[in-house]
Amino acid sequence: MRLSNFKTVALSVMVLGLIAGCSSQQTGQAGRMGMSQRAVPVEVKKAATEDFGIKLSLSGRLEATQQVSVTPKASGRVKQIHVNIGDQVKAGQPLVTLDEQEAGIQLQRSQASLLSAQARYAEVLEGTPEETVQQTQNTLAEMQNKYNAAKKELERTEALYKEGAISVAEYEQAKDALVSATTSLENQKQKLKTDQKGPTKAELDSATATLKQAQADYQLAQLDASNLVVKAPIDGIVGTLPITVGSNISTSTEVTTLINLSTMKVKTQATESQVGMFKNGQTVEVNIPSANVNTKGTITSVSPLADDTKSYPIEIQIPNPDLTLKVGMIASVEMTGELHKALVVPREAVISKNKENYVFVVEQEKAKQVQVELGESDGEKVEVLKGLAGSESVVVKGQNTLSDGATVTVIDPNQPVNTQGQKGKRQQNGQGNGQQQGQGQGQGNQGQGNQGQGNPGAGGQQQQPQASTQG
To answer: What local confidence, expressed as pLDDT, does residue 437 receive?
Structure first.
């Protein structure tokens, strides 16, 4: 009876010991886990003052700097086309030739008119020929004789009239004859003066005007004849050719479109807040992905007026020496605003809550929440206007799980953690602790027999204690 009670007491002591050992081990593990949860791992970067400028990217399309619609200066039928679409041409190179038949006839007519006007002008300029002057003088002598005769006849008739020998009618007839002879004589004298003096100013002006008109008509006919060959006004590439041989065209018909692609322009737009960053003559980076081209461009115009979309048109000129770029390609314009000294932090460090901005800084292994006022951002960094003094360790990873005053552990991102080594170390520590605890418990119970083989701890296999009947 006493032996049975003793065995019962011994078994109860052994079970209580095992329970106490397990509870102690679980309490230690829970404590270590709690400490690990309180220390939040984070990465930090120093807030630094540096040269900073906002980066901006605009999208636009390529256009030719020169694009000319070519129309003929003369009307007619297309006789020959000298180019094809895509051909490169030089200024002055023939593009199209028109039929010259009608223009040739007009040229001949205007040439004849010019010759006639030139002869008339020479005649007026040289004055009356000598033969004409001599003839005028002879006629004047005859007129003088007629006047003298009429005068004597009037004197004789007047005497007879006073004597009553003739009638009044005969006397009046003699007076009329003298008046007529006098008028003819004066006219002939004036003609002789004109012939001897040369052309009048009016005659010379009239001849000059006629000559100039004939010269202008002839030059116009010559120009029309030369315009039968339509020539390229600029260097460029033939973009369109909507005409065919034999078609009739006028001075309003487009025969081709020439495009100069040696230099291109990017047409883009800036918003009200962006347009102040652009100035004429400024250099920007231009990327054309479809052609795999990166080049520098020069701003040639910034419109002071907003368009219907409330944006400001901007034009940027870029080189295209090998003609790789084509009209209509999409281009990206990249530029950085004016550099200035600024305190900046990585953009991902900023947390926005309730329309306010915060960052976490690490001070003595504690996270401190700091409200900041932000300025410009280039997408990667942001300017801090107020809140930081500089050189603070700002949390850039892990900040979204932090609270003010939380304990943190700063992790160096350049030193990766060896998780396998740490796990193995934990397993070894667990096995060692378990073995020590098991050995202590086993030694304490060997007075009654082999009560247990030990508790291996975390990571090991746990064996149930076995009681021995030997005593």
So the answer is: 42
